[in-house]
Design goal:
With about 100 residues, the protein is mostly helical. It is about 65% helix and about 5% strand. Strands 1-2 form a two-stranded antiparallel ribbon.
Length: about 100
């Protein structure tokens, strides 16, 4: 998967675009609205799709192109985007000010 061809790159990019689009625009699952947030999800989703086949395995020999297996790539993209959003929502610094900082 390190030395992939351009078609495999495009397949992973399309998977990431679709997964990120469904989460961002369809389900409104984001930290901040806007295109920059969407494109950030696309990058994270591409990495998740790239890791999908090596980590989750090779499922359904007919649904692949080279070393890119579509179902594990979709699941990897979805998992990493959701994980990234949840981590940013949890630790993202959008916490309310504490009592001590309000008294200053």
């Amino acid at each position: 998967m390190i030395g992939m061809d351009f078609i495999s790159f495009l397949i992973l990019l399309i998977i990431s675009l679709v997964v990120s689009g469904v989460l961002h625009f369809g389900l409104k699952f984001y930290v901040i609205p806007g295109l920059t947030s969407y494109f950030g999800k696309v990058v994270v989703g591409w990495i998740g799709a790239w890791l999908g086949s090596p980590v989750l395995g090779h499922w359904w020999e007919g649904l692949n192109r080279g070393e890119v297996y579509y179902i594990p790539a979709i699941l990897g993209s979805l998992a990493l985007v959701v994980l990234a959003i949840d981590l940013v929502k949890t630790f993202g610094g959008s916490a309310k000010p504490t009592q001590q900082s309000q008294s200053m």
